[in-house]
Amino acid sequence: ALGSPLSYDQTQIASSAILEDGPGSITADGGEVVVEWSDSAVDVRRLVQTAPFRYPITIPGDTLSDDFGWQFTAYEAPPGTAEAKRVSLEAVLDSANVKEPLHFRNVKPGDTMQPFGFTGRRKLSDLLSEAKLTQAARARFPVVCDMIGPLWAPGVCMDERTRPSSLTTQVIILRFGSLKA
Known about the structure:
The chain is an alpha+beta fold. The chain is 14% helix and 33% strand. The chain is built from three helices and 14 strands. The radius of gyration is 18 Å and the shape is elongated.
């Protein structure tokens, strides 16, 4: 009915997971239809391609995205105002290591980051997949970048390059959340 069939194996995987596991999703052959499920619902829908996006982040201030239903709040503060965590909806960046202007955009092929506490770089697409984001969510996922590249994937990881240290004199605090009513 949606124009893309599930194979027998995909149907078996989806039906077993719906009955036994927690939330998940499976994308039909061709990548045009997705089946997503949770403890309370099963949703089958056609994937709509998300156009590439890029928007500047206002510092200080709120950057709103009515299209996606979320916002970034950003301000500068002295070090120690907030704690930098690897996985959080709040980022604390060493201002001296940020090559402004900051902006958010969707994930691009080849994007990499060095998550806090890791040695070496990881593909951002792999990090988002490991965070169990559906293909549809990954297409709309905002990544905060500076002129060098990705710095923060909200709720997934932060890049080691902007981690505050004992030498940090100023931080940029970013918060990600849904639009306030």
